[in-house]
Amino acid sequence: MTLNVIPKPNTVEFYGGEVWLSENKVTYKTNEHYPDEYYCIEITDGETIITTKGEKGRYYAHLTLTQIEESGKAPVCKIIDLPAFSYRGFMIDSARHMQTIDEIKAYITAAARFKFNTFHWHLCDDQGWRIESEKYPRLNEIGSWRYGHGFGNPNMSKYGGYYTKEEIKEIIEFCRERYIDVIPEIDMPGHTSAIIASYPELSCRGKQIGVEMQGGIYKNILCAGNEDVFSFCFGILDEVMEIFPGEYIHIGGDEAPKARWCNCQKCQNRIKEEGLKNEEELQGYFANRIISYLEAKGKKALAWNESLNSGMLNNNTIICDWMDRKHKSEEYANNGGKIIVEDFYHYYLDYEYGMTPLKKTYGLNPWLPELDYIGRQNVLGVEAPIWTEYVEDFDRMSYMCFPRLIAVAESGWTLDKYKDYEDFKARVRNQRSFLESLGIKMADESAWDPGLSVKAKVMSDRLKSILDPAMIGATLFPNKDDE
Ligand code: ACM
Ligand code: ZN
Question: Which ligand has the minimum distance to the alpha carbon of residue 271?
Answer without folding.
Answer: 2
